[in-house]
Amino acid sequence: MDIPTMILSPSAAARVAAIAAKQGKPAILRLAVEGGGCSGFQYTFALADAPDGDDLVIESGQAVLVVDPVSLDLVAGSTVDFIESLGGSAFQVTNPNAASGCGCGSSFAV
Predict the structure, then answer these.
(1) Residues 6+ apart with CB under 8 A from 88
(2) What mean pLDDT comes out for the span 63-86?
(3) What's the mean per-residue pLDDT of the chain?
(4) Which residues pair with 4 in a beta bridge?
(5) Whether CATH 3.50.50.60 fits 7-109
(6) Is 11:92 a contact under the CB 8 Å cutoff?
(7) 3-state secondary structure of 48
(8) d(CA 96, CA 25)
(9) pLDDT over 90 for what percent of the chain?
């Protein structure tokens, strides 16, 4: 069985490190997928104190991305980036498993 992989971009890693430093927490970003959103599933992001034992752990520069096994089934192969634009700034997931998404980029369907 192939080990799933993901990418935490340098801009996302730097943003996680900056947010964590302000909050006095470890630079660990947890990506999870929950039911809901306008397309069926939605991405959630939060700082984690530590990876759980069964998490996928991806190190990138100053930060770590962790994903639980259930969410990983839906986001394997994705890239997590941090985008700044006139419309605002946000973490963005480029998910090759998503059959469709929504305009806001925070939900998807498989």
Answers:
(1) none
(2) 93
(3) 87
(4) none
(5) no
(6) no
(7) coil
(8) 31
(9) 65
Residue spans of the domains in the chain: they are 7-109
Spatial neighbors of 109 by CB under 8 A, at least 6 apart, are 39, 40, 41, 98, 99, 100, 101
Say how far apart CA 87 and CA 100 lie, in whole Å.
21
- Quote the pLDDT of residue 1: 46
Any alpha helices (H) in the chain, and if so which ranges?
10-23, 69-75
What does the block give as tokens for 33?
């997928």
Q: Can you list the positions of beta strands (E) in the chain? A: 7-8, 28-36, 40-47, 56-60, 63-67, 79-85, 88-94, 100-101, 107-109
Task: Indicate whether 104 pLDDT > 70.
Answer: no
pLDDT band at residue 18 under the 50/70/90 scheme? very high
Beta carbons of 36 and 42 less than 8 angstroms apart: yes
Note the pTM of the prediction, 2 decimals: 0.86
Region of 88 please: left (phi>0), alpha (psi -120 to 50) or beta: left
Pairing of strands 107-109, 56-60: unpaired
